[in-house]
Design brief:
The protein has about 220 residues and is an alpha/beta fold. Helices cover about 45% and strands about 20% of the residues. The protein is built from ten helices and eight strands. Bound molecules: pyridoxal-5'-phosphate.
């Protein structure tokens, strides 16, 4: 079942969109089944689960962190993490840079932008995000690379609303990409099980899908 689900989702999103499989709450056995399809990009939203799974599963998995990350936990994930998609403060970005330097690594990061109407979700406003890039500070950090933006639309059945929020983020992504011309700034991560088709139609090139992979 997992095999067919992955195949179907990949067909729907096309070759130019990266599928990151969200493995939170799944068993090691389920994740292994997804891994055996050849997939290598997986995401977790909690540090403890991420560490346990990274330990238990093959080391060629490219792990993405997609949940709020506390600065004091950065040191645990930086030695192996592929990408931190949930960068929501400059303090966090600087801590990632410092730990990455200690590990002699370059860590790919996305700035998380708050586009949903819910207040509970983390992330910068577009204005804050613009100001951070305009400050030039991230560009001076030698061990993090800002690869783009991550966003989550409002959790609603109203797909017009979702589309509006996603189009807004795509427009913002294009404008900062042009304005700041950061090397490697080319990832727009938006779309989950309920809205990845809309996300791709709105210009997303990375989707993070969990339940549709494991439950169909
Ligand atoms: C859980 C989660 C997803 C995937 O959600 P599904 O609805 O299971 O596809 C994507 N992004 C983030 C940030 C998440 O926390």
């Amino acid at each position: 079942m997992i095999v067919e689900n992955i195949r179907r989702i990949q067909q729907e999103i096309g070759q130019s969109v990266q599928l990151v499989i969200v493995s939170k709450f799944r068993t090691i056995e389920e994740i292994r089944q997804a891994y055996e399809t050849g997939h290598r990009q997986f995401a977790e939203n909690r540090v403890q689960a991420l560490l346990e799974r990274a330990e238990a599963l093959p080391s060629d998995i490219e792990w993405h962190m997609i949940g709020h990350l506390q600065s004091n936990k950065v040191k645990h994930v930086v030695p192996f993490i592929k990408m931190i998609q949930s960068v929501d403060s400059v303090k966090l970005l600087k801590e990632i840079d410092m730990q990455a330097e200690k590990n002699n690594r370059m860590v790919d990061c996305l700035l998380q932008v708050h586009i949903a109407e819910e207040e509970s979700k983390f992330g910068f406003s577009m204005n804050e995000c613009h100001a951070i890039l305009a400050s030039g500070e991230p560009q001076q950090l030698g061990h993090v690379r800002i690869r783009g933006l991550m966003g989550m639309a409002t959790n609603t059945n109203d797909m017009e609303k979702v589309k509006q929020e996603m189009k807004g983020l795509k427009t913002f992504f294009d404008s900062v990409r042009t304005e700041f011309n950061l090397p490697g700034f080319d990832i727009l991560s938006m779309g989950m099980s309920s809205d990845y088709r809309v996300a791709v139609a709105c210009g997303s090139n990375m989707v993070r899908v969990g339940s549709k992979v494991f439950e169909g």
